[in-house]
Design brief:
The chain is α/β, with parallel strands linked by helices. The chain contains eleven helices and twelve strands. It is 38% helix and 16% strand. α1 packs antiparallel against α8, α3 packs parallel to α4 and α3 packs across α7. It binds pyridoxal-5'-phosphate.
Length: 339
């Protein structure tokens, strides 16, 4: 099998880092304060295996029951738990391509069979995705690396047409409006997956959660490791929800910067897909995308280049601060003008 290759994580701070969709803004002050307060001798003790308090806060925030949530060590862990809970060897898991690259290795590890349906170039939903007879179907919405979003009616229609479970990965939903979480009430086969890595600026603490009807969540709870989320991450996640306004403000700022970035990139001649996320996908027609990635790296800007079908003429660029965005645009202009 092929392993997943995450974006580069250089350990020195020499780059403007726009390659893995981290948030450029600090987590809320409340999160930082509570974390400092939690650094006591209590770290001797195991964390709450049921994440009781955090699930209560999730239930308040999203108007669901606490029993409808499971918390994971990053949403990546929840993807593993989903597959282990609901899919046996040789059963089918389907998804549309191009999308999040971690699904395929997880499917291979389980010994399941992937049925992959290509997205068209505009990333509208391929109708065949519902006809694969899959035990589990993954849909990233808004999608990565395209940044595009499908309307709720389309998602709801997919949920009622698939045979098995529909897992909707909403890692970027806070940079958009809406979300499909209320579908868990009307559709027993829907699981919503969220992460605190992007909009809540907590990638380093590894916190994700899933929401579904209690029966599906009960099944997933049987499969998870008992102490999967550590004490500090629980504390941070709780504080982050208490101060959710801070996240919303940062997300709004990022959306404003995104729209300016899109306009400027288009003026420079790039094809840029509409984005409902904190990144943009650009197609480079004038200059080879791989060279552009390398040139940007030389000049101190890390972006994501995917050397794979459909994406090898594109770059995915995270929306940074206003200053980081100016720096990126300056370097791009320099590189393009030199040719
Ligand atoms: C970032 C991302 C994840 C992983 O999130 P973590 O909570 O950091 O594990 C999962 N799915 C998609 C689509 C992502 O972009």
């Amino acid at each position: 099998m092929k392993s997943y290759s995450p974006g580069e994580q250089p350990q020195q701070k020499k780059y403007v880092k726009l390659n893995t969709n981290e948030n450029p803004y600090s987590p809320s002050e409340l999160v930082l304060t509570r974390l400092r307060q939690a650094c006591t001798d209590e770290l001797r003790l195991y964390p709450d295996p049921d994440a009781t308090h955090l699930r209560k806060l999730l239930s308040k925030t999203f108007s669901k029951k606490p029993e409808q949530f499971i918390v994971g060590n990053g949403s990546d862990e929840l993807l593993t738990i989903l597959i282990r809970s609901f899919v046996s060897e040789n059963e089918v898991i389907s998804y549309s391509y191009p999308t999040y690259g971690y699904y395929q290795p997880l499917i291979d590890i389980q010994g399941a069979n992937a049925v992959v349906v290509d997205y068209p170039d505009d990333f509208s939903l391929p109708t065949e995705l519902a006809n694969t007879n899959a035990k589990l179907t993954f849909l990233v919405n808004p999608n990565s690396p395209s940044g595009t979003i499908l309307p709720l009616e389309i998602i709801e229609d997919l949920a009622s047409r698939v045979n098995g479970i529909l897992a909707i990965d909403e890692a970027y939903i806070d940079f958009s409006t809406g979300g499909a979480m209320d579908l868990v009430e009307s559709h027993v086969n829907v699981v919503i997956i969220r992460t605190m890595s992007k909009s809540f600026s907590l990638a380093g603490l590894r916190i994700g959660f899933a929401c579904a009807n209690t029966e599906l969540i009960d099944g997933m709870l049987k499969v998870k490791d008992h102490y999967n989320v550590n004490r500090l991450s629980l504390v941070a996640a709780e504080a982050a929800l208490e101060d959710i306004e801070n996240m919303k403000q940062n997300a709004m700022l990022i959306c404003q910067t995104r729209e300016r970035l899109i306009t400027d990139l288009r003026n420079m001649g790039f094809y840029v897909w509409e984005s409902a996320t904190n990144f943009v996908l650009v197609r480079s027609k004038k200059i080879c995308a791989k060279n552009l990635y390398l040139e940007l790296k030389k000049r101190g800007v890390l972006v994501r280049y995917f050397e794979q079908p459909r994406l090898d003429d594109c770059l995915r660029i995270t929306v940074g601060t206003e200053n980081e965005t100016d720096f990126l645009l300056d370097q791009l202009r320099f590189i393009l003008n030199r040719r």
